[in-house]
Specification:
Length: 239
């Protein structure tokens, strides 16, 4: 077990409830099943927090058919749903003071969630005895929040998946085109609408032309277009 997983395990041991922060655009795709198994094996409650709800349509929020319970939709960026989340934590814990671990894949918004709940601009670094140096703590009234490093299952090697969950940025992808095409497929037509192209077999070439990403001779730069698609997905422009 590497250092990041050991830190996460330590935080779970100290927590009453563990929040697994997911991307509301792709809840199932951003679940960390190895993490969930660890939480349940230690007898802790899981609360699924679907972050970035501002990037999904109202119909998605109203349907609530994602099958993840208990769960709360929030937007850390706009501080939406934080009161509902705070009340949900307290109702699940049924105690005066609650310690809550905040876990999940990298770049799902764990730190921004902590900042939104605590009202801080930045979580403070722990100097409490027994906690690993560098662990981020923040108080939100009766709730003590503990940040954790993002963790990826050791057997997760699929590059498009790593791009989708934000664990690998566009500049580090060996095959950005495969990642971009996976994202386009997941969005079911919305990527074509966003870029103003038809989603045919040459969609990356069409996006490159539309965005003026051309090589010498006027040929479409599909690699550049693919990296743009991945960046737009990861920074929330594409949803």
């Amino acid at each position: 077990m590497d250092r990041a997983w050991k830190i996460v395990e330590d935080v779970i041991d100290r927590s009453d409830i563990v929040l697994e922060v997911l991307d509301a655009r792709l809840p199932e795709g951003t679940r960390n099943l190895q993490l969930e198994k660890m939480i349940r094996n230690k007898g802790r409650q899981i609360l699924f927090v679907l972050n970035k709800c501002d990037l999904v349509g109202k119909q998605v929020l109203e349907k609530k058919d994602h099958g993840l319970e208990p769960s709360v939709f929030i937007s850390s960026r706009h501080r939406l749903g934080t009161t509902i989340l705070r009340n949900k934590i307290l109702s699940m814990a049924k105690k005066d003071r609650v310690t809550v671990g905040v876990c999940g894949y990298p770049n799902t918004g764990k730190s921004s969630l902590i900042n939104a709940l605590s009202g801080r601009s930045k979580a403070r670094t722990s100097s409490i005895s027994g906690f690993t140096k560098g662990i981020q703590l923040a108080s939100a009234g009766r709730i003590m929040l503990i940040d954790t490093p993002g963790v990826i299952p050791p057997d997760e090697r699929d590059e498009p998946t790593l791009a989708i969950i934000g664990a690998r940025d566009s500049g580090r992808l060996k095959d950005p085109e495969s990642a971009a095409l996976r994202i386009i497929g997941l969005l079911k037509g919305r990527a074509g609408q966003f870029y103003g192209v038809e989603e045919g077999e040459n969609v990356l070439a069409d996006i490159a032309r539309k965005q003026g990403r051309l090589l010498k001779g006027g040929f479409p730069d599909e690699i550049s277009a693919a990296k743009m698609v991945v960046r737009d997905w990861q920074n929330g422009r594409l949803s």
